[in-house]
Amino acid sequence: MSSFARNTLVLGGLLMALGVVLGAVATHALRGRLTADELGVFEIAVRYHIYNALGLLIIGAVALVASPPPLRWAAGFIAVGIALFSGSLYAASLGAPRFIQVLPPIGGLALIAGWILFAVAIWRVPR
After folding, report:
1. What secondary structure letter does DSSP report for 101?
2. Which residues contact 35 (CB under 8 A, 6 or more apart)?
3. What is the phi/psi pair of residue 121, to 5°?
4. 82 with 104: CB under 8 angstroms?
5. How confident is the model at residue 116 (pLDDT cuts 50, 70, 90)?
6. CA–CA distance from 26 to each of 2, 31, 35, 38, 43 (Å)?
7. pLDDT at 67 exceeding the cut of 90
């Protein structure tokens, strides 16, 4: 197994676990402490976090078979996208300063770029 595949699978697994923990925190510890809008933002962050962590697991699985260069970039952009998009939404829902609200669009663009790079990487794999 390549180190890229192993590292991507480990990162995806850890991010999945963190997403589940944060989802449980939202359900059990934050309900009643946050407004409905704040809880909704937190839950959106969890949803995108888990979907994209699952995507990292898929990228790691693909890397077991083929690892074209754009695949590495895809994983990197997706990891950064999770941190910026979901991380800033978590922070915003918990009362972070308003300037944090500039980060979700940047994280969203990183996620979009990552998935486009994934598509390019798969397209380039020989048939």
Report:
1. G
2. none
3. -60, -45
4. no
5. very high
6. 36, 6, 12, 10, 7
7. no
State the helix-helix crossing angle for 36-63 and 3-25, rounded to 10 degrees.
160
Token pair of 24 as six digits: 């449980």
Kindly give, in sequence order, each residue whose CB lies less than 8 Å from that of residue 119, ignoring residues fewer than 6 positions away.
Answer: none
Cβ-contact 42, 30 below 8 angstroms: yes
Cα angle 15-18-22, degrees, rounded to a multiple of 5: 140
How many degrees, rounded to 5, is the angle at CA 14 between CA 101 and CA 35? 35
Residue 8: is it exposed, middle or buried by C-beta count within 10 angstroms (0-12/13-18/19+)? buried
How many residues belong to the chain? 127
Domain spans in the chain, listed from the N-terminal domain onward = 3-124
Q: Yes or no: say if 78 and 58 are a contact pair by the CB < 8 Å rule.
A: no
The Cα 7–Cα 3 span in angstroms is: 6
